[in-house]
Design brief:
The chain is mostly helical. It is built from four helices and three strands; from the N terminus they run αβββααα. It has a three-stranded mixed beta sheet, covered by helices on one side. It is globular, with a radius of gyration of 13 Å. The chain starts with a helix and ends with a helix.
Length: 114
Amino acid sequence: MRDQATVRAALERAKARLDRLDLYPTPVRIDRVRVFVWPTLFRLPWFRRFDGYAAWNAIFLRGTVERSGDDLLTHELCHVWQMQHHPAAMPLSYLRSGYERNRYEEEARRAAAS
């Protein structure tokens, strides 16, 4: 990441937004969360439709943190929070429910909109 202070500040803003929500028993932990700007990943067929992707403690972005914006980072950090509480059920839910009507996806959308 180009500027770790910028990334850290953006993560802290996203965490502050999520901390206002009462979705899980403990607040999201960001101490081990890493943000990667990896535009090449989003050229792969599965990832083309996304601008961000969360996988446990990693958040992958198509563009820089500044370009991606706080809403996308909050959305992806919400997925990290979900996986902190449901590490197997959350990712597997996409196999059962798909993407559009997935309860975790809907929750992350609402979290970013709040």
